Amino acid sequence: MNKEQILSAAAAGTFIIGGDLRVNRMGYGAMRITGPGVWGPPADKVAALATLGRAIELGVNLIDTADSYGPGTSEELIAEGLYPYPAGLVIATKGGWERPGPSQWTHNASPKHLTEALEGSLQRLRLDRIDIYQLHAPDNAVSFEASIEALAGLRKQGKIRHVALSNVTREHVERARKIVPIVSVQNRYSFADRESDFIVDYCEQNNIAFLPWAPLGQAKEAHKAIKEVANDLDTTPLQVALAWLLKRSKVILPIPGTSSVKHVEENIAAADLQLPQAAYDKLSAVSHPPASLRG
């Protein structure tokens, strides 16, 4: 980590989600504080809780999680480590997946399941209302409109402040917005995995937050390009990848995840990394076939 960098999530600037939730643009993703296969408790619970605490100390006020991370484990640890929550902390969670076992994910975005999932998240997070509740993924066995209408109904009941989407196409976003305001979209996206480029543009045009997951490209040419830029800037590849995302659009809110205090410090240091235009352009030219969606 470059010692001259400011170690604060605030260095990335802020974004107002849904017109009323101002957050620092560098957030934290809480999937990795669970066990292997995103299943069960972490191998080192003390380290997981310390990582959550350190993220808050460094100015993170947007935490992304999901009921399926564990399942339930991530939300439980967030509450155990951070409740009572500091003023201004925004917790975004998701529903729409079920977990038969480690590394196994199955769709269930039925209105009944989403209602039960929300109630479970409220209980685990010790909240009366979820600030941002995301449909984790569309379910081909369920009408997309039915899923969104269920979330709109829960919002009307006051159990959700804002509705959001994850793992979607632009068409999904447009269809959902006809039913309820959508404040954020979370898709796989990085300098080398830009299938959602046009969704980022759409979000920017409509002032919708975009939360990218999997910020590092996986192809060999992606690794080579980012290592070269990182070496030139005396920083790490992940910091460069995060800086690229911040430069790509003002609506992008990176949510890198880790269960290590050291790594959360390194990730947040990227908030202050100024990526030269030449380096940005070099990385923007890298691409590889899209991977499957989940996050």
Quick structural gist:
This protein has 295 residues and is α/β, with parallel strands linked by helices. The chain has helices at 45-57, 73-82, 111-125, 144-156, 170-177, 197-205, 220-233, 237-248, 261-269, 277-284, and strands at 14-17, 21-24, 28-29, 62-64, 90-95, 97-98, 106-107, 130-135, 160-166, 182-188, 209-213. It has ten helices and eleven strands.
Please give a structural write-up.
The protein is an alpha/beta fold. The chain has a single domain (9-284), classed as TIM Barrel, CATH 3.20.20.100. 38% of the residues lie in helices and 16% in strands. It has ten helices and eleven strands. It has helices at residues 45-57, 73-82, 111-125, 144-156, 170-177, 197-205, 220-233, 237-248, 261-269, 277-284, and strands at 14-17, 21-24, 28-29, 62-64, 90-95, 97-98, 106-107, 130-135, 160-166, 182-188, 209-213. Strands 3-4-5-8-9-10-11 form a seven-stranded parallel β-sheet, covered by helices on one side. The chain has a two-stranded antiparallel sheet with strand order 1-2. Helix 1 packs parallel to helix 9 (261-269), helix 3 packs across helix 4 and helix 7 (220-233) packs across helix 8 (237-248).
Keywords:
10 helices, 295 residues, seven-stranded parallel β-sheet, two-stranded antiparallel ribbon, TIM Barrel, alpha/beta
- Low-confidence stretches are none
Number of structural domains = 1
Strand content: 15-25%
- The strand order across the widest sheet is 3-4-5-8-9-10-11
Tally of contiguous helical segments: 10
Look at the structure and give the CATH class. Alpha Beta
Average residue-wise pLDDT: 94
